[in-house]
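Slide 14.
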Amino acid sequence: MTLSVCLIVKDEQEVIVRCLNCASKFADEIVIVDTGSADNTVAMAKKFTDKVYFFKWCDDFSAARNYAFSKAECELVMWLDADDVITDENCEKINRIKNSFSSYDMAVLPYAASFDGDVPTFVYNRERIFRRSMNFKFSGAVHEAVTPRGRILYSDAVIYHKKLKENEPMRNLKIIQKLIASGAKLDARQKFYYGRELFFNKMYLESIAVLTDFLDGDGWEVNKAEACLNLFDAYTALGDSKKAYGALLRGFTIAPPSSRACCIMGDYFLKENNLAGAEFWYNSAIGADKENSGVFVNRDYGGFIPYMQLCVVYDRLGNKVKADACNEAAGKLKPYNTNFLNNRKYFENLGIRGK
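Slide 15: predicted structure.
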């Protein structure tokens, strides 16, 4: 099947060639929609495609993405951001997806947004490739998304979101507040992201009010569980640990605890010197996240962090061999980490390493 790759761009001259070099390895057509660039973005894009269009920015990412999709002519459509990067291995996987798509209507791919060196640490699934005849549409002025439907393929072809510059901090918040000022009523998903934007901008009381309201209404289970973690962070920032842990535990009534939630509980018990409790929660964190469930996954909490903390727990319990084994498990994930290497020297000095 043929594939149109669609981007909306503005002032992306530093990254667009990098992205389009990747996209050209699997795209039959590239569609670029510029929303007001003042640099050389458009000229650079025209070296890859003659399908370059202009869209007057209206504070609505969905409107721009849907316009880009409307210009696509292939059987399949895919979206990318200009600062996305795709390895050769993952380009090959996308080619295989494209050539075997007849049994599916959409494909969901992992999106890696944070890294430790080149290793992805923060990953979540995004709806990415669509059968054009199904007329999929984005919704939401910011944090736009396509509602899944039809036959869905979950792939392991990872897209790397490699930013060279940060967005204007208040951009998304201003767009949402403009919507509210216009009289628009936020749906559950928009309310969830509004609460998160307030938190990211350190408006903790306002964030708590919005996220609490979201939890009391409709919404996806995964978003509600994440909202409880956001509330934990907001209350913690305000110094209210009782309400912070109350919010965290509320999340346990919504969905199985994430790896990060388990690590938070492990930290609590470790601080209280309840080593059995800490051991339980850190062990529970390992592999707790299911990355195809739609949750935000920080992989460090599902592996490296609990292994390092279990090293501390077992060392305090006097089980140096098991402590060393946990440190080595962490080292397999981050072999150049300073803490891991310092721990290894500690166990070598004890005569445990090498036995």
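Speaker note: The mean pLDDT is 95.
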